[in-house]
Design a protein that fits this description.
about 5% strand, two-stranded antiparallel ribbon, RNaseH-like_sf, mainly alpha
């Protein structure tokens, strides 16, 4: 978990909150049935389930992503370009 902890934690959560429950409730006969149930769980995981992880602070990943989009765009433009009268020029790191 030291090199890929976030991904490993997600896999553990998916196993315990999705697979373990789905496979106890239902016998699947079609791959499409499994796919549909996993997609529904992922939708719940990303849009409804609050997370306590390092970056979510009790919000859903979807809320965290939406909150950060504007900030990311602002910071990217701030760090890459400055406006001169008619065009943009790339700034040096120390400017």
């Amino acid at each position: 978990p030291q090199t890929n902890g976030i991904c490993e934690r997600f896999h553990k959560t998916m196993k315990t909150e999705c697979y373990d429950i789905l496979f106890r409730r239902k016998i699947y006969t079609q791959l499409s049935e499994i796919q549909n149930d996993i997609e529904q769980w992922l939708e719940f995981y990303n849009r409804e389930r609050a997370h306590s992880g390092k970056y979510c602070y009790g919000k859903t990943p979807w809320q965290t992503w939406n909150d950060a989009k504007g900030l990311v765009k602002e910071k990217q433009l701030e760090n890459l370009f400055c406006s001169s009268d008619t065009h943009f020029v790339k700034m040096k790191a120390d400017e």
